[in-house]
Amino acid sequence: MAERSPNQPCRILVVDDEPVVRDVIRNVLERPGLFLVDAADGEQAIELLLKEPFDILIVDKNLPGITGLDVIRRAKAADPTIATLLITAYASRESVEEAMAIGVDDYLIKPFNITDLVGKVE
User: Fold this and answer.
1) Does residue 34 have a pLDDT over 60?
2) CA 40: distance to chain centroid?
3) Contact 26/14 with Cβ under 8 angstroms?
4) How far is CA 99 from CA 20, 21, 33, 89, 106, in A?
5) By the 8 A CB rule, do 76 and 82 touch?
6) How far is CA 5 from CA 10, 33, 55, 79, 84, in A?
7) pTM for this one?
């Protein structure tokens, strides 16, 4: 992750097509020192990634249109230091290997434990 001054908030982009998942993540992570932005699909996420820097990308693997893995590929191409957390309801050995091959830092399986999410972000 890129170096930030202590006064600069950690910028997190949350990408999931399910509003309830985005809301849960926002409610759990929102606090001083963290700045959260969310997107409902891959296209919106890529637009945001091209406009502004983020420290952490939390993205669902199965999005309509552009997949979560494609969003991660684009994010890593633009900023190799961005930390990435993939969320998936369908974890297979092959999908985990593919995710790690493109540089995903970690993943969570839906339904995920809130404590696990917080721990991985910290």
Assistant:
1) yes
2) 12
3) yes
4) 24, 21, 28, 14, 9
5) yes
6) 10, 11, 13, 18, 21
7) 0.91
